[in-house]
Write a structure and sequence with these properties.
Blueprint: E1 11-19, E2 24-32, H1 36-50, E3 53-55, E4 61-65, H2 72-77, E5 101-102, H3 105-110, H4 112-122, H5 124-134, E6 142-150, E7 156-159, E8 165-172, E9 185-189, E10 192-196, E11 203-207, E12 215-217, E13 226-234
Antiparallel strand pairs: 1-2, 3-4, 4-11, 5-6, 6-13, 7-12, 8-11, 8-13, 9-10, 9-12
Length: 253
């Protein structure tokens, strides 16, 4: 898998029946089948969730490995998105809202890999598997995928994701062993650091947001660009609909 490619047509039309005298179709049935890359991502996600490691301290969370098919993380690292200019400001991603990137309608039309991941998380099989693993209620939620690029000087204050986010998955796109210490900090309380996840390529930290799911990124040197995908299922109350992959189509509706 190399450079990102534009998305291809994936709708196929079959004749349901033909009038033998008129030699024309009497009814059309349109059948949509997922393209091979979407199917590969779905299979990879299902296998990853089935092998997830559960950790109960300081709150219930999961470690997931081999999230995407081989080579896909390299494709994401090659996406032509510029990282935000911090200008000395950090602590919250919202400080740079005008420079953030999502797997939205525009980027899904440009890049096949973006579409494949969005479609996989939209699929009932993946959403159901996540719900069974974590207990998250994903009915009537929407797929939100952010492509994050953090540079030296970036940090995140402890926060919980509680509110309109029903599920959080932080997928690491690490580049080299020098970034291992750039994982998410996990807190027992806003002012009580507990541990840090390893920032390893194609692995993820998963949790269901609650009033105790404190996490962040404490200030430390960042070598190169710290890339990750932030995957959330959000409720209808999410206001920035343009960020969603399918703003009019909830999962498990």
């Amino acid at each position: 898998m190399t450079a990102p490619r534009a998305c291809s047509n994936r709708r196929f039309t079959f004749l349901k029946s033909v009038d033998p005298l008129r030699r024309c179709p009497t009814e059309l049935t349109v059948i949509s089948t997922p393209p091979p890359l979407t199917e590969a991502v779905q299979a990879s996600l299902l296998a990853a969730f089935s092998a997830a490691r559960t950790d109960l301290q300081p709150y219930r969370h999961w470690g997931v490995a081999e999230v995407f098919p081989e080579g896909m993380c390299a494709t994401f690292r090659a996406l032509p998105f510029a990282p935000p200019r911090l200008d000395g400001l950090s602590g919250k991603r919202e400080l740079h809202n005008d420079q953030r990137h999502y797997f939205d309608a525009r980027n899904m039309a440009r890049f096949e890999a973006c579409t494949a991941v969005a479609e996989a998380f939209q699929s009932p099989s993946v959403a159901t598997a996540i719900g069974e693993l974590t207990g998250a209620d994903l009915r009537d939620t929407f797929v939100r995928l952010e492509y994050a690029q953090d540079t030296d000087g970036f940090w995140l204050e402890p926060h919980t994701d509680l509110g309109v986010k029903r599920f959080t998955m932080l997928i690491y796109l690490a580049e080299g062993e020098g970034q291992t210490d750039l994982g998410t900090d996990i807190y027992a309380a806003p002012d009580q650091w507990a541990k840090r996840s390893a920032f390893i390529d194609n692995t993820a930290l998963v949790f269901v947001p609650g009033d105790n799911t404190w996490h962040g990124l404490s200030p430390r040197p960042i070598s190169g660009i710290r890339r990750s995908l932030i995957m959330n299922y959000v409720t209808r109350e999410w206001r920035a609909r343009e960020q969603l992959a399918y703003p009019d189509t909830p999962v498990l509706a």
